[in-house]
Hints:
alpha/beta, Trna Endonuclease, Chain: A, domain 1, two-stranded antiparallel ribbon, 10 helices, 57% helix
Amino acid sequence: MNGEIWEGTPEEWEQLIDALLMRKHGPAFRKVPDRDGGDGGIESFTTDDCTAYQCYAAEEPLSTALLYEKQRDKLTADINKFIGNRRELQKIFGTTVIKTWLLVVPRFESSELIKHANRKAKEVQRQLLPYVGPDFSIGIVNASVWAFERAELTRSRLASIRISAARSSTKPNDQPQPEFISNLRRKIKVLMPAGNDKVRNDAEREFLEFYLNGESVFDQLHSNYPLLYADARAAKENQEMYLSMESRLTPSQPAEHLQATLRAFKETLIERLGGVSIDTIEALSWGTLAGWLLHCPLDFIEKK
């Protein structure tokens, strides 16, 4: 998947992209208000690199085919406006000659959209518009091209990143190896000495789901927010370094030690990841905890 599934509103998507562009381009960023008669096929442009922007967040969930159709139709409609509103746009752009028009979407998955964009770019070139450069092009991008700016915004709490913990697919190697499942089962018996088989089986199933969902969130951070991923990974590795010794030395009961470990890691993530949503923090925290149970940095000694 090229991008992310956006769970906010189209207006929130536009606001996020505006904030990223403002942070990237500063005074060169120009917002084009559309309340008095239309936006002319653009929502903003930048005078330093001469790029025009149009945001679009289709309502999810959508298949690849439906997503392509909606994005293709949006691109077509707005490029037609970009051509048709010649007189108004010439006034808006002033001396700026646009080199690139970008459709900014949360995700796109079809190469057909790129081909369509290239065809529409040639159509614009043939119009010899005064505000369009000779090498004019049309592109489709997602917010990952501004990963640095988005991480800065998140850290300053000007943006909120929410990553769904639900996995989009199950790979054959997703499930932990049998030896790690055995580790988890042994620890669950220590954590729940009074539990029956059903209670322990339910706990095993939930911990495995936490682990897989947490790995999915880490993967999405790595793909879309590499700086935030680095922060989360560093927090995980730092706490993991001391877990084995803490597990041997703690006077707490196993369940108490597990809760304290979870609480400490969650607080660290909240501090390091700033504006990342709390449900994403929860998925990362529980997923990491489950991984520690499976792979043994977090272990328990039965207390008498």
